[in-house]
Amino acid sequence: MSTDWNILWPVFTESIGQTLWMVGVTMLVGGFLGLLLGILLYTTRRGGLLENRFVHTGLNILVNFVRPIPFIVFITAIGPLTLRVVGTTIGTAAATFPLIVASTFGISRIVEQNLVTIDNGVIEAARSMGAGPVRIITTLLIPEALGPLILGYTFVFVSVVDATAIAGAVGGGGLGNFAIAYGYQRFNWTVTWIAVLVIVLLVQVAQFLGNRLARMTLRQ
What we know:
This protein is an all-alpha fold.
């Protein structure tokens, strides 16, 4: 089947832009919210800076409830909430909202797991010198776990790119929608594979930059 790129090229570039927008906004908003939630999970656990059994248990149950849900199920399950917040369940903005929600819970667990590896003796030493919880979190916990956190966020970035492709299957736009609508459904394998290669290239660049940044941080 012949491919008329005079027609497809504007759609293709728009799809790339939609994917980058979804990934960028998700990593920015979901990354920040996930960091806050992960810190809260870590600090409210037993022996933590802000130990609170009820808060920790509630957050732990919530994260464990959301994380295992496959994204294609999750994006449809929170459709009513997306409709209320965004005003629609179709399009890039409607796909970005569930991406942010899902990534927030996924990142929170990664943040918590990386913070757990920090030596408690270092934290106790800071507390004994009069450092408060906020100061310990910002000047000790996050800097100590920065390298592993960068790797964790890189992993999430790859997962979010994958999720944007899934979102395309339910009208979310982006390269996933382009590959399905203009490739798979029209039996045009050339279009499908070009979309796949762009996704792979995006992931490879992100993985390379994440690994490099993490190595630079760990050497300090």
